[in-house]
Amino acid sequence: MLALVLFSLVSLSSALSPVPLLGYTSTSFPFLESVQTNDQATAINTIFDHEDICSFDAIILATQEALHATKLKSTYSSVVDRYRSAESGIHLPYLSYSVSPIEQAADLAVRCNSKLLHAPTTEDASFALDVSQKHVITLEFEEIVDPETVDRQLATFMHAFPSHLTLFTGVPGRSRRQSTGAKSSGSIPAPDPTPSAPLAPVSYRVLTPTLIFSFGIVFGLVVPLVYIAISALGGIKSPVSNSSYKGPSADKKNR
Questions:
Q1: Looking at the record, which segments are called Disordered (predicted)?
Q2: CB 136 within 8 A of CB 59
């Protein structure tokens, strides 16, 4: 019973904190536009399971803590610009979260015979990049990060690998972090982002399958069981309350 309630609460929390997925390619990949799902893991798996996924020189998988659809549209205009001008793209604004998509990168690297690179997200970090070899690159950004830093990091790998697939998605925030001060000039060159209008507004999908399932469990099973238990406890009467007090008998009074 307790496990069922906990499962319902976890599912409900996940459903109420959807994350977006934005992806684009430098070469034609029509399959990307056909992916339709409400689950982040399903979307990533569907893309990675495609037979042509290994045709890219680089697969760039970037995540950011507490990234949601509104923030993606209003903050990352340059990333949105690339999506709009890309050969193929995908935009799923409200996905339920289960596990970090970064965990799937290692299996993809093995499958594509590519080098797995967990790239640092600080601009002053240095790392070796062999462009003659295929790569699966992961970038894990914190909740508080300069949007231009994200754009420059993505642009660096996109320019290094002309044939690439880039996926940018959100993960739940682990904690609130204070900004670490002014941005650094960095050592990784890339073009400055060009502001543009955000994505067209997309209606918020409140009743996702996960949310409906969670409400079904809570209101269809848990609530009735709690009501039955309360009713059963209310029906138990105390022996003292049922027995009325009887005074001395009339015979004893006449004596």
A1: 169-194
A2: yes
